[in-house]
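User: what does the whole thing look like in 3D?
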Amino acid sequence: MKTAVRLPILFLSLAILIASAVTSNQGQLISLYAIPYDALRSLIRMTAAYIASVLFSFAYAYAMYANRYAERILHPILDILQSVPILGFFPFAILIFVRAVNGNEIGWEFASIFLIFTSMTWNMTFGIFDSFASIPEDLKQTSKLYGLTGWRRFRDLYFPSTIPKLVYNSMMSWAAGWYFLVPAEYIASVVKGGTMLPGMGSMLYISAQRGDISLMASTFAFLILIVVIMDVTVWRPLNLWSEKYKYEYTPGASGTQQINQFPMRRYFQWIPVRSGSGKAISGAVRRGAEKFNTAGHKITAFYGNTRRIWKYIFVAAGIIAAGGAIAVAFEAASSIYSLLIVSGGVYATVLPLALGLSLARLVIAYFISLGISLPLAIASARRGSGRLIMPIAEIVASVPATAVFPIIVFSLIGITHGLNIPAILLITTGMVWYLFFNLAAGIRTIPSEIIEAARNYGLRGRLYAKRVLLPAIFPSLVTGSITAFGGGWNALIVSEYVQSITPGTRPYSVLGIGELIDRAAYASPPNTPLLILSLFVMIIAVIVINRLFWKKLQILAEGKYRIEGVS
Amino acid sequence: MELLRVKNLSKKLVVKGTPFMILDNISFEVKERDFVCIVGPSGSGKSSLLRMIARLDMPTGGAVEFSEDLGKDVVVSMIFQSFALFPWLTVTENVAIGLEAMNVVREERQRIVKRYIDIVGLNGFEDAYPKELSGGMKQRVGIARSLAVDPDLLCMDEPFSALDVLTAQGLRDEVLMLWQQSDLPPSAVLMVTHNLEEAVYMADRIIVMTPRPGKVSCEMTVDIPRPRDRKSPEFLDFVDQVFSKIV
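Assistant: Here's the predicted 3D structure for the full assembly of 814 residues, as structure tokens:
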């Protein structure tokens, strides 16, 4: 597709969406005519959550990067937050947003945005932090030498360094956001006193509940349309543009490596007032930033130096966080204690069993994902038809499988007589893409001279796989596996407890830690002690597995299997 | 005796719909015991040419023909600018990799690998990983790996340009010394470089290429007796001659 028409298509689609949302929304919230309106609401929610995620990620990543004491605390916290599934934030969402506005609808809106935010933000924070941490020392020294400070340092050094990972993780985050849109929107109407938030997630949930397959299919089709338009008009151009910001010092084998420069000018060419309004906006931003900068300098001067300010901020933040943590822990401990007393110790046996079952499902789903993604990733590096795999995969990965879970389960349950096998398939949808994209990236970054050497010395078939391919992709296999399991733990809550599309019947479920979390969150009123207890068990399991297993593989990957620019 | 003949070789690439001539009608020969250097500025397609001779890439026109006496199993090995060692394999495993692909039995393999590790002076580093070696030592592994497969033709793609000046000069002399031992492979060497002095120092013949599209501008025989003195007037004069062919 021509570059110049991408942006007009985006704006045209938005205009059509807004126009049809305004004209067709006649108060009937669950009907075909409400789809554009619901889509617009969901899109606004997603965008708000995304903007919040970017801001949060930059602030958090910078705090981690700028101060190594802060990193020691903030890094493990982020690890934990990343392993908490979206429903785990539910009680806090209600606590913070709903109670604060006394049950007003706007509170539920914010709670829902917050939940989407929690499914978008952690990977982005890690990506930005990695980018900061891997800025070459000479670049930092150069920018110091040329007096880049404050805003300029951010604009010319820190921000550009994050662009490749920011763009990549933004795509991942939007996909994750769509994936968890159903629980994030629907949750508001589960709780007593809650309200139905119009949106595609709610629409999918309610149409499934009513067994209205055609409404469900239409909503899903509309969702796919949005995903495709965004991919073509936003992500693909951004992805190409981000290529420019990768610093690679590897000498190309024969100088034939080409950077695909994204024609930014052509992308924006149709905006006629660009130069004028663009300048005005960038001027305003710069003036604002400079004001901010001078203010910052004044504060800095007042307190002596930046280092000391950071120390004050972190000590203050630490005290507040510790106080909050103690309060939460106390609250949690007392409620869990009362839960255990009431249930007479039932959960002492149920929880470990649930955890074991979930883990078994995860492991099976992991191997299915690996079996799918490894051959696919290898094929995607091939010339010819292999080139088609990547763009197709990008779109398919962004289409949230969760939207059609009830239909998948409905059509499988007659054959499998239980949710166990369908649940494993559903979990796979939450794991497979993380593995695929990491492996595909790993294969593409094998230096061409390594591949040429392998061919020159006649390595083929099994010997090539054993000596070259598998060792070369080992680091990306480890990273991919870690993120896939992260996705898998999160996917448990939508896979072990799936609503039925036969009206009036109860949801399908299998015993598992995700199911326990669902039951607790969807109970009316929510069973907070059980929710906290199951979350606690799950988080401990994630941390233990990370420490005992993945950490070791990661060290191996970064040591022995790392490919340097010149080896 | 003739070992290799490049006949009217061309390479055309299509970049974003526009055809690009990388190599245009290249012809030359390499004889047994020849040390040939291909020189030329960047963009003259030297490395692409080398890769087509090493059968890592296919020409779009013309052919690379090896002497029929060599039979079907011509062995062409390659030394890379960036060394291209497998970082997860030890020195021994890296040197053995080509033999492993040829299904040489284990004992024989170990014997050959040990011999070449000795020849390039890497004893004591058999179990080291490439990351633990200096640049010069890494390229020694590359040299041992390329000789271990008993090549008929050894291709070198700017083998010394990633090394510092002193290390590079030391390694050049060593390669020449190995080359002059008649009991060691290969039958001929084909080296790509943009360093004219290096070419005059090492080669029997120099093939000068000009860029866009890559063409052979001329062939020169270096008749300076070995060992060559890089400070001698005739040496410097020869470098000037090659230089004038490129500009």
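In plain terms: The mean pLDDT of chain A is 81. Chain A touches chain B at residues 250-251, 253-256, 258, 447, 449-450, 452-460, 463, 467-468, 471-472, 474, 560-567 (CB under 8 Å).
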